[in-house]
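Quiz preparation item.
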């Protein structure tokens, strides 16, 4: 079955990207060897995506991993007419639909940029080949997986909290820079509350500062 290319219009692919932001993040988790760097320079491309465009549509296959150089991205799904934000990330983070990428199944979520966004992109086939050709890169991947598993654990924790104030407090603890950057409707959806409730909670927090 043919896999789709990255989706959505408004994307311009550059042939020779600057991958130094990606290398800096990878080096934070585990040293990147010259061999790894050379491979990434050969196989990573860059992409500019306009605000509100989709990187991936629910029901399609994910075949790419994206690194955010500049901008903001969210994952979301729909339940009837309801739009549910499942995660929000900004610069220096990697995004993809992991289930679709690893299990070769249609994605259960949409991936959308929230701002004009600059990305670095690698195809899954090239990533898998990197693991095979340079086994040491698996150490980098393991550290990254630990990081993103911790993020998933924090999201699960928020989902289980019942009080809106506690949800927002936990959000500020780990994502305070997003509070005044991301549209409130997406933050409210991510926290599992109405926009009115979030606005009320934010006023309470503001009055305490």
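Solution:
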């Amino acid at each position: 079955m043919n896999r789709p290319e990255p989706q959505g219009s408004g994307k311009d692919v550059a042939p020779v990207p600057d991958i130094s932001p990606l290398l800096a993040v990878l080096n934070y988790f585990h040293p990147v060897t010259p061999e790894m760097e050379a491979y990434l320079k050969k196989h990573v491309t860059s992409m500019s995506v306009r605000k509100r465009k989709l990187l991936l549509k629910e029901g399609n296959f994910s075949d790419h991993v994206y690194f955010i150089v500049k901008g903001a991205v969210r994952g979301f799904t729909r339940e009837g007419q309801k739009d549910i934000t499942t995660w929000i990330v900004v610069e220096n983070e990697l995004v993809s639909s992991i289930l679709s990428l690893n299990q070769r199944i249609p994605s259960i979520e949409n991936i959308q940029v929230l701002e004009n966004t600059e990305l670095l992109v690698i195809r899954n086939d090239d990533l898998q080949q990197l693991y095979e050709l340079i086994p040491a890169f698996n150490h980098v991947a393991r550290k990254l997986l630990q990081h993103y598993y911790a993020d998933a654990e924090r999201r699960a924790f928020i989902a289980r909290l019942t009080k809106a104030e506690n949800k927002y407090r936990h959000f500020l603890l780990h994502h305070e820079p997003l509070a005044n950057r991301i549209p409130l409707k997406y933050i409210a959806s991510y926290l599992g509350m109405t926009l009115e409730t979030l606005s009320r909670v934010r006023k309470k927090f503001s009055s305490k500062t």
